Amino acid sequence: LLGRFGDELNLPVYIVGGFVRDLLMGNPNLDLDVVVERDGLSFAEHAAKRLEATLVKHEKFLTASLFLKDGTRIDVATARTEYYEAPTELPQVEVSTIKKDLYRRDFTINAMAIKLNQKDFGLLLDFFGAKKDLENKVVRCLHTLSFVEDPTRILRAVRFETRFSFRIEERTSQLMLEAVRQGYLEKVSGQRLRQEFEKILEEPKWLAALKRLSDFEVIKRMFPGVFYTVTMEQKLRSLADFLPWAEEFFGNVQRFYAVMFVFLEYHGDTAIEEIKARYGLSSKFVDELKLLKKMIVPLSKVISNKLNFSDIYKMTKGISPEGFCYIAAYLDPESQEYLKQFLTKLRETKLRYVDGRIIVQKFALKPSRLIGELLEEVYCAKLDGSIDDDQEMQFVEKK
Ligand code: CTP
Predict the structure, then answer these.
(1) Tens digit of pLDDT for each residue in 72-112?
(2) Where is the signal peptide (predicted)?
(3) What's the sign of the alpha-carbon dihedral 165, 167, 172, 173?
């Protein structure tokens, strides 16, 4: 259909980027990136009308997004060349041909297009040997300034390499390392870097990707003071082992923060503040980090030694899901199991028959802090399994 709309306006239309790459690899991809030669905006308006889609235009960038009723999103761009007045600044945009549009992209494997106009429908445009690189499982940049112009591509290279089990090509590796060493990552906004970093953490093989980032000296550049040692890797591995369970259990775990606990545990306050400002870390996280830093060793011992659930409960009040993942980073598999049992029991345990009001009435007491403490004792006894639902009141009476 998109090709036909192009024909109606006499405009060449292509599908490009990740969609083409994934199509050739046999992977599903619902991200539709369309490039139109000469005039993407008119094409987008025309297509939006015909498809009864909602249109959002970004005139300045000559791009638009179509939102179809079935939820599909189609991004439309005008074929363009970008040139950079200064590295890492936003590029200047100039209308051009599909070939030049593809050349400004990050890697060969992302720089293919398929023509959609009826005459050449399905024609694959591969100007830079991308098919061969796909066959050889190689991530290769298109030109020597690629990482200087957009240093976030350093992280993207690692993401694609680990996702597809490819290898970053030798020359590309050199260019990445040079850009890192010349300080180009520091020129990118923290927000963009964090976004790319978070995308890496969403990959199933994120742990391997972090190792690669450290090979390219990205970790210590992005997070000054973080040294990717064997010990750190072990902790991250334990965290990675625990994560699937935690994500299922808590529903949502922000991997970024879970990893930040491990990265920043030895940082002093000033260093933490700097990283907080750069990457927009929440104050809640920083407070929890400061607290957990002090508690992590005793806490992991309490769990490894399988102390009572009530002891763990008292030490972990207010800890976030990410904080629990950090604790798990310190635990061997058996102790992680104990932590899971604790969290499960914690969630199940509720006071069924007693609450503050009932105690006040039944024993003709004035509301006070002591009652709160008493309720806490009942709760702990239930957590430890020393009383069950029916024994709640008996326990209170005895006290
Ligand atoms: N692109 C680029 N440089 C970047 C980001 C994107 O050249 N820093 C180009 C690539 O051609 C990429 C396309 O824009 O294929 C779309 O970007 P994006 O949606 O981020 O990546 P995908 O390749 O679609 O990857 P993913 O599967 O992760 O969505």
Answers:
(1) 899 999 998 877 777 666 677 777 899 999 999 999 999 99
(2) none
(3) positive
Angle between helices 321-329 and 255-264 in degrees, nearest 10: 50
Q: Do strands 113-115 and 13-16 pair parallel, antiparallel, or not at all (unpaired)?
A: antiparallel
pTM of the full structure: 0.91
pLDDT confidence bin for 256, thresholds 50/70/90? very high
For CA atoms 199, 201, 204, 206, give the dihedral sign. positive
Provide the β-strand partners of residue 64.
Answer: 57, 76
Quick count: other Cβ atoms within 10 Å of Cβ 348?
9
Could you tell me if the CB of 169 is within 6 A of ligand 1?
no
Q: pLDDT exceeding 90 applies to what percent of the chain?
A: 81
Which pair of structure tokens corresponds to residue 75?
């991004």
DSSP 108: G
Q: Return phi, psi of residue 140, to 5°.
A: -135, 130
Q: Which amino acid is at 216?
A: F
Pocket of ligand 1 contains residue 126 by CB under 6 Å: no
Beta strand spans in the chain (E)? 13-16, 32-36, 54-58, 63-67, 73-78, 80-83, 92-95, 113-115, 124-125, 138-139, 167-168
Ligand 1 center–CA 168 separation, angstroms: 16
Q: What angle do CA 87, 91, 92 make, to 5 degrees?
A: 130
pLDDT in tens, 119-137: 999 999 999 999 999 999 9
Q: What is the DSSP letter of 90?
A: P
As a whole number of angstroms, the distance between CA 361 and CA 364 comes to: 5
Residues sharing a CB contact under 8 Å with residue 281, sequence separation 6 or more, in sequence order: 257, 260, 275
CA distance 234 to 333: 12
